[in-house]
Q: What sequence folds into this?
């Protein structure tokens, strides 16, 4: 059974813009992205929105719906009251290109700053031998669809633009953790995580975990374990002493 | 880092929406409740620290255990009958030990989340703007000291085991005969279990058992321990609150029995 929903959508370019009100038809089983597409088709043909798979797997249609970062294609209209005004805005942490489309190149830049997987020089591809339990911990992080909602919601850069040069954000700190936990990665990533990627800026308030559409436990399984590894390296005299006495390699 | 003109220009390229948040749910409720819960806990802890009603029969008040002061600890409350702080120490015994479990909770990753959100509003809730103009996280003093958490864990683990020992002792009656089970016994046992679940589900414990390793398959016993700790860790928040409530209930109960306020037959 269809009904008319009240939508308030942010329209504008380069940051300048406003919230515009619309009344639009909603049918049973639809998601917010369907309604945005109906707006495009019937009322605002120039409304810009990025989307692709409509199945919650490409991470393209990240937006803020009633103030919360959500995937437009995975947010059911049935979760709202029929008389509720639904506010849709672009991701607030990134520059706006147009309407709901943001420039997320900050994330690509941070991705390039993370050194890639570095196996031992004497082990060739095809010679890696490891057990499932050695890699399954970091396999959780491979579920990431790069929707950048964790980056968007993290207050370190959301509320403080000036931290962007020093902080890579949860998505790329998770990538560093994934590589640091890999049995065949030989790069020392702990100091770099702290010094170059701003791990210590994270105050573990878990918003990244709350918004992750893949339900990755970013904070508990990546960021905090990485913080503990940094403590091993930088702040724990017992670990340092043990490494000297037993000549353990990091 | 000073905000430059160029960065300000970048900031202006974001969607300019002049409200703190567009959230329509009751996002403020969780920080308010957390603030109230932690505040009440601190108030109680402050009172309990100075209260000297420590021992009721075989029940020992958890906030004062281990009781280490000869002058202020009754004979039955001393750990293994031992009181390393002699008669010269006349202050409440809780003052000697509460810094350790207090420090453990203060530096705990869950509690950090809770008070950063509810007390410091950094941020108060997800996608709600924080009121601070600058933010450096845990990258400098004093918050860089949060990294001592694992040392507090070592001490808190010992105190957790002592509370378990106290719970076992509560199966004795006031004359020292085993077989007694009162309401206090049940409360102390439940409290000990919750405290152990909270303490050994800690992120530092998870790291120490095997989290620091990259080859789990080479350390099967440590991997098994990590798996168990991970199960507790997944409910760390719940255990943090449950153990906080249980320790207040257990402590208050013992003190009220000791003061004679609670005096029914199966107390």
A:
């Amino acid at each position: 059974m269809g009904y008319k929903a009240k939508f308030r959508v942010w329209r504008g370019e380069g940051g300048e813009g406003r919230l515009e009100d619309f009344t639009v038809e909603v049918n049973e089983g639809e998601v917010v992205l369907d309604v945005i597409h109906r707006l495009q088709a019937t009322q605002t043909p120039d409304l810009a929105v990025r989307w692709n798979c409509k199945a919650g797997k490409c991470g393209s249609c990240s937006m803020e719906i009633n103030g919360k970062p959500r995937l437009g294609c995975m947010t059911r209209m049935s979760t709202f009251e029929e008389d509720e005004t639904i506010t849709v805005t672009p991701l607030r942490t990134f520059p706006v290109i147009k309407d709901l489309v943001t420039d997320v190149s900050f994330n690509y830049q941070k991705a390039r700053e993370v050194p890639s997987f570095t196996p031992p020089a004497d082990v060739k591809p095809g010679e890696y031998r490891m057990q499932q339990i050695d890699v399954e911990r970091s396999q959780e992080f491979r579920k990431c669809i790069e929707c950048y909602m964790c980056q968007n919601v993290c207050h370190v850069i959301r509320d403080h633009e000036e931290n962007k040069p020093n902080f890579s954000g949860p998505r790329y700190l998770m990538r560093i953790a994934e590589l640091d936990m890999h049995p065949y990665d030989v790069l020392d990533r702990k100091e770099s995580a702290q010094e170059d990627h701003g791990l210590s800026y994270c105050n573990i308030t878990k918003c990244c975990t709350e918004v992750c559409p893949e339900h990755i436990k970013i904070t508990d399984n990546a960021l905090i374990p990485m913080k503990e590894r940094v403590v091993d390296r930088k702040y724990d005299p017992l670990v340092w002493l043990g490494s000297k006495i037993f000549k353990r390699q990091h | 880092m000073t905000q430059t003109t160029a960065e300000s220009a970048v900031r202006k390229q974001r969607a300019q929406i002049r409200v703190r948040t567009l959230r329509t749910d009751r996002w403020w409720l969780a920080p308010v409740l957390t603030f109230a819960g932690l505040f009440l806990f601190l108030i109680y802890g402050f009172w309990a620290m100075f209260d000297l009603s420590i021992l009721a029969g075989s029940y020992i008040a958890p906030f004062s255990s281990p009781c280490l002061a000869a002058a202020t600890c009754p004979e039955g409350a001393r750990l293994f009958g031992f009181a390393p702080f002699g008669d010269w120490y006349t202050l409440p015994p809780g003052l000697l030990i509460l810094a350790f479990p207090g420090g453990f909770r203060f530096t705990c990753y869950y509690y950090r989340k809770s008070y950063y959100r509810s007390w410091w509003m950094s941020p108060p809730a997800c996608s709600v703007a924080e009121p601070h103009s600058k933010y450096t996280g845990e990258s400098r003093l004093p918050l860089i000291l949060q990294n001592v958490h694992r040392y507090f864990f070592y001490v808190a683990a010992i105190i957790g085991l002592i509370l378990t020992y106290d719970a076992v002792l509560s199966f004795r009656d006031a004359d020292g005969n085993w077989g007694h089970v009162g309401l206090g016994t049940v409360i102390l046992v439940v409290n000990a279990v919750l405290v152990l679940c909270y303490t050994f589900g800690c992120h530092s414990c998870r790291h120490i058992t095997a989290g620091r390793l990259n080859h789990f398959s080479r350390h099967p016993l440590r991997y098994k321990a990590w798996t168990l700790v991970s199960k507790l860790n997944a409910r760390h928040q719940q255990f943090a609150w449950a153990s906080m409530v249980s320790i207040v209930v257990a402590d208050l109960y013992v003190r009220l029995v000791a003061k004679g306020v609670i005096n029914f037959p199966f107390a």
